Amino acid sequence: MPVSAEDWKSTEMIRAENALHEAIERAERGISDADELMAAQEERSGEEVSSAEALRAYADRPDAPAALHKAIHDVQSGLRSRDDALSDPAIAADPVVKAALEMVTRPNAIPRRGEPRVGYDPDDFSTHDIMRNE
What average pLDDT does the chain have? Predict the structure, then answer.
């Protein structure tokens, strides 16, 4: 009868090895699932960013509702609070206009005229590609 290289292992050793292999397979499946979730999250983040950019672009358009332009101006100049502007019936009636106002008037969303954009540091040349809002 031939002797196998595995013959020296006890039953406990074989069970431990099998449990280890099963744990490795579970871990690999978990890593794969996590990679899929992270990829899906990155896709959603990209959609959110593009949605935010679309809302900002909509708010900047000259043909956007006058009520939106006025509300943005009033909030940024301190004439009205953000909550007051959001509760305005002309804003609340249109969900797109309301979402655009919410996006644009978030703290640090759009700097006031003459103020640098978020992330701009005059002493850090790596941020100089961030244009000033003039």
Answer: 76
